[in-house]
TrEMBL record:
Belongs to the ABC transporter superfamily. This is Oligopeptide transport ATP-binding protein OppF. InterPro entries: AAA+_ATPase, ABC_transp_ATP-bind, ABC_transporter-like_ATP-bd, ABC_transporter-like_CS, P-loop_NTPase. SUPFAM superfamilies: P-loop containing nucleoside triphosphate hydrolases. One of its GO terms (biological process) is transmembrane transport. Residues 5-255 form the ABC transporter domain. It holds the Pfam family ABC_tran. Coiled coil: none annotated. One of its GO terms (molecular function) is ATP binding.
Length: 265
């Protein structure tokens, strides 16, 4: 099966004044249709930079990203916009993800307003009321339709993140990029949101790029993990192989921090 995303040898350096940071030093990855790939690693290892490049929010210095068979590099204007409809995002901070002057349903429906030829998931009818459609998306994300009229500041962090996920799936993307989507939530809510993402991934057959500093959270929903350190992918494996004795020392360090060194014996 052709991958949804294929990124090869991505290099990205951020420069400001005389200083520069090499955020990515040649990272390659691919995500198959319906697959959940986790990108894990410590703060500053380059995880969010990978997300920004895949979302075309930034450009690599070198390397290539092919999305649904089309190279992103060099795409501009309407062609770039059309590629963007295949990739949606959910970020860490649900508070800043919404316009606080709009009721939540208006933000949830926004991607469908932007891409008028995109079809919503779950066989929903886009010719009906926009508010009802948003309410249906919210319900699929586990939020009662009664919340549709509320403003973002009237929702809890967990509810806002569910609303962000509802918006993320509104145009039925091939790939949902989730950058630390549960990091601002308490442990119980984290688990619920992880379960929701897994359930939606299965129901909609979409791929997920799940970025997290928390290897246990990533392992709980991902099929494969890519471990990053200092701008490099140092390890990559199916989740079932996470405790193999031959894992990269840095992966062992991350796993041991959660499960203890005995995880590998
Ligand atoms: N816009 C920017 N300008 C300058 N440096 C940046 C910029 N964005 C990221 N960096 C630097 O690039 C490196 C990688 O950052 P990135 O955000 O990709 O890491 P991360 O693994 O996602 O970290 P975190 O888990 O803390 O979000 C870091 O050293 C960071 O300080």
């Amino acid at each position: 099966m052709k991958p949804i995303v294929e990124a090869s040898s991505l290099v990205k350096t951020y420069r400001s004044g005389r200083s520069s940071v090499q955020a990515l030093r040649g990272v390659s990855l691919s995500i198959a249709p319906g697959e959940c790939l986790g990108v894990v690693g410590e703060s500053g290892s380059g995880k969010s930079t990978v997300a920004r490049l895949l979302l075309a929010l930034d450009k690599p210095d070198s390397g290539e990203i092919v999305l649904n068979g089309v190279p992103l590099t060099g795409l501009k204007g309407e062609k770039l916009r059309q590629m963007r409809r295949h990739v949606q995002a959910v970020f860490q901070d649900p508070a800043s993800a919404f316009n606080e002057r709009l009721p939540i349903w208006r933000s949830v429906i926004e991607p469908l307003d932007c891409f008028t030829d995109a079809e919503p998931p779950f066989g929903a009818d886009r010719t009906g009321s926009r508010k009802e459609l948003a309410a249906l998306l919210l319900e699929q994300a586990g939020l009662d339709s009664g919340y549709a009229e509320r403003y973002p500041q009237e929702l809890s962090g967990g509810q806002r993140q569910r609303a962000a996920i509802a918006r993320g799936i509104a145009i039925g993307p091939s790939l949902l990029v989730c950058d630390e989507p549960t990091s601002s939530l308490d442990v119980t809510l984290q688990k619920k949101v992880l379960l929701l993402l897994k359930q939606l991934q299965r129901e909609l057959g979409m791929s997920i790029l799940f970025i997290s500093h928390d290897i246990a959270a990533a392992a709980s929903i991902c099929d494969r993990l890519l471990v990053m350190k200092d701008g490099l992918a140092v390890d990559e494996f199916p989740v079932r192989d996470i405790r193999l004795a031959g894992r990269h020392p840095y992966t062992r360090q991350l796993v041991s921090a959660v499960h203890g060194e005995e995880a590998f014996t």
